[in-house]
Structure formats: structure tokens, C-alpha cells
Design brief:
about 300 residues; D-Maltodextrin-Binding Protein, domain 2; 2 domains; 5-stranded mixed beta sheet; 3-stranded antiparallel beta sheet; globular; ABC_Gly_betaine_transp_sub-bd; Substrate-binding region of ABC-type glycine betaine transport system
């Protein structure tokens, strides 16, 4: 009987010890949700955030909500807590989400946006990635030469017969066509909203005459397009910056420092090169992002 009691006590101690040791050694997995808009560059930079954390924080579970349908959908997702982080552009944040007046100085725009997001939504803007993906009106080279187009105000010469191809967002945003039309006093014969990826094939095939291009898009030289100077300085700077919810930064120690390692690693030419690997060479955005991070020694 004494032996049975002794064995029972030993077994009970073993169970209690195992439970205590188990609690001490287990790691609570934290979840980090990355969001993005639904075009090539956003898929690439979204994958950069996700892969960077996956490669350096094994105790963090990374989820992807990439390809959300538009900048406001992405904004609502991060402010509501549906996603924890994304890469946004200073100009978009300034004029669309914050609905503030144009600031042409890049450093001042970043400062205003950073302070405003932290104050309004407890979202922290981290170190800028380094490139400026601003809007630019683009035309075919032969069209520019035939009509003497070198700057945006020159479009007044052709506007009454010209068709603009642009994204749905650009057709509606204050920093898009509505604001541009007012600033330049130019109205096109027609405006055709379309998927941003279709703009380039449309202008190449002479289906539209002008498009609202992204300055870091590799298809600009590939399709022999010309960017027209924004001579009225309408478009704000669009520097790409990772933004993360402050509660997420508190929950995952070291996350801010890790993401800030991406700061300054990309310039306009490099981002255009990465976009080209997807849009022209057909690579997957995940593979492009991973290759870049490996080159930088970040994973």
C-alpha cells in the first residue's frame, strides 16, 4: 500500500513538473498580418515585409492579405486592425486619407503624415524605403514628337481629341484626374478607367492617347513611352513607407527595428527593375521580394 502511494506521489509530481516545464518552454505565437493594394509594386513590397519577418522572427506567424481592392480598402483594413502593417505612399496619405493640402517638400510631407497617422489612428510610419513612385502623365514617343509634347501643360494642344486611360482610383482621387484637370485647366475628350495593368497595353495598342503612369513602372521604357513634366507641380511626392499599428509594435518586440532595416534600400531605378521582373519577365512577386532581401543580407 505504501508503495502504491509512493508511486502515485511520484507520478503526480512528474505530471506537475511536466506542466510547469511545458509552460516555461512554450512560446506563444504572435500573428503579424501584412496587407497591400492590388498592383505589382504593392505585391512586391508587401511580400518584402512578410518574408522579412518570416525569415527573422520564427515565433511570429505571418499572414498575408495582399491585393486588397484599392487604397481606401487598405486604409480601412489597417485602421480597423484587420491588418497590422502595409506600405503606403506619402502623397496618397496626405491628400486622400488625411485630405490635406498639397505639400511638395518630401521631408515635410513625411513629417506631417507620420505625426497625423500616429495621432489619429495609432499607426506608426517607419523609415522610408527610398523610392518615390509619383504619378506622371505618359504618352507614346511618336505621339509626343508628332504633337510637340514635353510637359503636361502641352496636353492642351491635343486634349479635345485625346482619350485618357487611368486607374479607377486616379479617375476619382483629389490627387488624380479631378484635381489635375482643375490645376491644368485641361479636360480630355474621354476618360476610360481601367485596371492599372491594362493602361500600358491600351496605350501601346493606340486604344488611348495618354495614361496616368507610375514613375517606377518598368513598362515605360519597355513600351517606348515618354513621361511629361509635371510643370505645374501638381502631384505630391509619393515616397513609399512601411506603416505598422502601434499595438502590434508593442506586442512584437524588435519588429520596428527589423522593418527599419529596409529603410533606404530602394531607389526609383531599383524599384522599377523589380517591377519589371514581374510585369515583363513574368516572375512571381514573392520570388522577386525574396531575392532582393537575400541580396541585401536581410534574410
Amino acid at each position: 500500500m505504501r508503495n502504491i502511494k509512493l508511486i502515485s506521489c511520484i507520478l503526480l509530481l512528474a505530471v506537475i513538473s511536466g506542466a510547469v516545464l511545458g509552460c516555461g518552454s512554450s512560446t506563444v505565437s504572435k500573428t503579424f498580418v501584412v496587407g497591400s493594394d492590388n498592383y505589382t509594386e504593392q505585391f512586391i513590397v508587401g511580400e518584402m515585409l512578410a518574408i522579412l519577418v518570416e525569415g527573422n522572427m520564427p515565433d511570429v506567424k505571418v499572414e498575408r492579405k495582399l491585393g486588397l481592392n484599392g487604397v481606401m480598402v487598405l486604409h480601412n483594413a489597417i485602421t480597423s486592425g484587420e491588418v497590422d502593417a502595409a506600405v503606403e505612399y506619402t502623397g496618397s496619405a496626405l491628400m486622400q486619407m488625411l485630405q490635406m493640402d498639397l505639400i511638395t517638400d518630401p521631408d515635410e510631407a513625411y513629417k506631417v503624415v507620420k505625426e497625423s497617422y500616429l495621432d489619429r489612428w495609432s499607426i506608426k510610419w517607419l523609415e522610408p524605403l527610398g523610392f518615390n513612385n509619383t504619378y506622371a502623365m505618359a504618352v507614346r514617343k511618336d505621339y509626343a514628337e508628332a504633337n510637340g509634347l514635353s510637359k503636361s501643360s502641352d496636353l492642351a494642344k491635343v486634349a479635345e481629341n485625346a482619350v485618357l486611360g487611368c486607374s479607377m482610383q486616379f479617375s476619382e482621387r483629389p490627387d488624380g484626374y479631378p484635381g489635375w484637370k482643375e490645376a491644368y485647366g485641361i479636360e480630355f475628350k474621354d476618360v476610360v478607367p481601367m485596371d492599372s495593368g491594362l493602361m500600358y497595353s491600351s496605350i501601346k495598342n493606340n486604344e488611348v492617347d495618354v495614361i496616368s503612369a507610375f514613375s517606377t513602372d518598368a513598362r515605360i521604357p519597355e513600351f517606348d513611352l515618354v513621361l511629361l513634366e509635371d510643370d505645374k507641380k501638381f502631384f505630391p511626392p509619393y515616397y513609399a513607407v512601411p506603416m505598422v499599428r502601434t499595438d502590434t509594435l508593442e506586442e512584437i518586440p524588435g519588429l520596428e527595428e527589423l522593418i527599419n532595416k529596409l529603410g533606404g534600400t530602394l531607389n526609383d531605378a531599383k524599384m522599377a527593375e523589380l517591377n519589371g521582373k514581374v510585369d515583363i519577365d513574368g516572375m512571381d512577386p514573392h520570388d522577386v521580394a525574396k531575392e532582393f532581401l537575400q541580396e541585401q543580407g536581410l534574410i
